[in-house]
Amino acid sequence: MFMASYTANYGLHQWEATDNFLRTDFNTDFGIIDGALAGLESDKPELVAGSYAGDGAMSRTISLGAAPKAVLVTDESGALHNGQAAYGGFALPGHACIHGGAVTVQITADGFQVGRGYAVSGSYWADVNKSGMTYYFMALV
To answer: Residue 21 in contact with residue 4, Cβ under 8 Å?
Structure first.
């Protein structure tokens, strides 16, 4: 007599010691497990690295084709900050990197946005798009 119960999450067979079972029961369970594992692989983030040349605009969007789970931007020296001005930052969805009231890095629907901000004196204290500067980024997409 077949008395197997089933797991709560995937409906896999849980046989009792006295149960008879069929090979097709195993094949069904392996198919469910294979599908669940394939779903995990498709959800695994990919590391994307690249660079862009600053164009001096107050804000700029770098398209990655999808919203990243995290992004880190640095200037060409690898620095985020020089003691006065921010030249990069780290952002998560819903958590922009802000320096001196200016958004330096924030995640968008298809990539990330970088920005510039300046103090009353006219000097920049947040500059992640300075003209002529090369910036590097890593993003988990």
So the answer is: yes
Residues 46/141, Cβ–Cβ less than 8 Å: yes
Residue among 55, 94, 54, 53 nearest 71 (CA): 94
134, HSE (Cβ side, Cα atoms, 13 Å)? 6
User: Could you state, in order of their start, the residue ranges of all structural domains in the chain?
Assistant: 5-43, 47-140
Q: Which residues pair with 115 in a beta bridge?
A: 59
Q: Report in angstroms the alpha-carbon separations of 132 from 19, 42, 54, 76, 104.
A: 73, 38, 6, 11, 17
Q: What is the pTM of this model?
A: 0.69
Give residue-wise pLDDT tens across range 28-62. 888 888 888 887 776 778 999 999 999 999 999 99
Q: Which two tokens stand for residue 83?
A: 């003691």
